[in-house]
Amino acid sequence: MQNMTSGRPLSLIVKFAVPLLISNFFQQLYSISDILLVGRLVGVKALAAVGACAPLFFFLVVVSIGFTNGLTVITAQSFGAKNFVLMKKSVAVAVILSLSFTAVFSLVMFFLMDDILNIMNVPQDIFNETKSFMNIICAGVIMIVAFNLMSGFMRALGDSKTPLYFLIFTTIINIGLNIIFIYFLNMGVKGSALGTVVAMSIASLCCFMYMRKKFALLFPHGNQWRISSKMCRSHLAIAIPMAIQFSIIALSAAVSQTICNNFGYATIAAMTAAMRIEQLAAQPMVSFGVAMSTYVAQNYGARRIARIRRGVFECSLVSLGLSIVLAIAVFAFGRKAAGIFVPDNEPQITSEVIDMAVTYLNITIVFYFFLGQIFIFRNSCQGMGNSVIPMISSSVELIMRVFAAIYLTSMFGYTGLCYASPLAWIGGAAVVSFGYFSTIRKINRNLQGNRERAFNPDIDIYKQKL
């Protein structure tokens, strides 16, 4: 456990973010290994089948992450305020709400799968494989939610290392299972999905057993499992907007993918490879953003607002430097990285896929700074319990992405589609940065008002007389 309410802010944030960075790297490796093995061992069409539903898979994952992260914000605030009874009640509420959410969410997705894939314009020559992949993932989504919730609890207490160790463990198992299912058992796309679900199930069970032994402070007892409607509302007030916010982000990606699916399986494969490279490059910025959520939540619980402002400012400068370094790295090695995802036995298609992937990467790297600021300010707002601003920001991202995907694509074809993400990042960064500074000013005014009442007890009496 780590108390982040004292000490040098940037040092604490970096110390917390580094394990998250390694964790996110392995999480991306977890995803990339599926795509890489499918593309190299099965073929371009199989790669396109997984890529065509990538936003839908992304939707399942990020909505569960958003919902569970929202539930654990109050856990982190309670820990920062050293209110351990409230913290345990928060854990109980989070567990019960997560189980309810998962049951409804997975059933709805399962029964609407055909309609969703048709809306996304998934080509008929890869439709059945895409559907099989998603049905297996939906059956195991409860394990994804469980793992993210337990990881969120540990991070709420300042421990970002243990979730990392479990994720590394999960990644190794997943790669091994994928090789067995795809290569030795010749299960193709189904093997990729099954490997993901089985690996996540094993990791969730091991994570729970470890937490029972090492994080006994988190586990509720007796009456602490009796949750009130007020507690549920307070948690859902943060979790639902965060889930909606993440779903909007996923929906915006789905819009781009839907337009992309009209270009054929070669373009789908190119975008799939390019997006995996972009997601891997963005992980340093993502990690600092997640670290800010815990840092801000603990300091907000302790009412250390000046520390929040200092931490956000210093982290923003670091994110600026990272965006420049990452853009240079992607520009230098993007072509070689894209070539890893496609087989060598189809040279003409392979060359076309790589060229389109590089086009996308070279356009988006210029705008990495805006993406980094989104992660910093969005997570800072959420750490202070303000999930409305991030949701508005995500809505703006959706509008900008839909505009680019529909209008610019009709004007400039595939090149127009490549500008969807940059435009979304610019719009989202503008909204969420404005929202962060507005939230800070409002909190400072409230604290100033509380101090005035503390030093002048006659204020309330005077108001009563009026």
Task: Report on the architecture of this protein.
This protein has one domain (9-465). Helix content is 85%, strand content 0%. The protein contains 19 helices and no strands. The chain has helices at residues 9-41, 44-52, 54-80, 84-111, 113-119, 124-139, 141-156, 161-184, 189-214, 229-261, 265-281, 283-301, 305-339, 347-364, 368-383, 388-412, 414-418, 420-455, 458-465.
Number of domains: 1
Strand % is under 5%
Mean pLDDT: 83
- H and E order: HHHHHHHHHHHHHHHHHHH
Short description:
The protein has 466 residues and is an all-alpha fold. It has 19 helices and no strands.
Mind sketching the topology for me?
Blueprint lengths: L8 H33 L2 H9 L1 H27 L3 H28 L1 H7 L4 H16 L1 H16 L4 H24 L4 H26 L14 H33 L3 H17 L1 H19 L3 H35 L7 H18 L3 H16 L4 H25 L1 H5 L1 H36 L2 H8 L1
Helix pairs in contact: 1-2, 1-8, 1-9, 1-11, 1-12, 2-6, 2-11, 3-4, 3-7, 3-10, 3-12, 4-6, 4-7, 6-9, 7-9, 8-9, 10-16, 11-13, 11-14, 12-13, 12-15, 13-14, 13-15, 15-18, 16-18
Key attributes of the depicted protein:
single chain, 466 residues, mainly alpha, 19 helices, globular, disordered C terminus
